[in-house]
Amino acid sequence: MSVAKIIEVSASSKTSVEDAVRSGIKKVAETVKGIQGAWVNETKVVTDGDGNIIEWRVNLRITFLVQ
């Protein structure tokens, strides 16, 4: 029988949503082994005064197997 755990993290990127997801998963993988996947729970943007997007933010739910 396998047991999985889910953690929630926030990550950001000045480039794209995809880059924010990648950097979030990569950072978690530095300390968590056995990552099985992730859900993008929420996407947000930060804008400047002119309405230009200056940062992408995501909330991720990352699933990994408990050893």
UniProtKB/TrEMBL annotation:
<dbReference type="InterPro" id="IPR025543">
    <property type="entry name" value="Dodecin-like"/>
</dbReference>
<protein>
    <recommendedName>
        <fullName>Dodecin domain-containing protein</fullName>
    </recommendedName>
</protein>
<dbReference type="Pfam" id="PF07311">
    <property type="entry name" value="Dodecin"/>
</dbReference>
<dbReference type="InterPro" id="IPR036694">
    <property type="entry name" value="Dodecin-like_sf"/>
</dbReference>
<dbReference type="InterPro" id="IPR009923">
    <property type="entry name" value="Dodecin"/>
</dbReference>
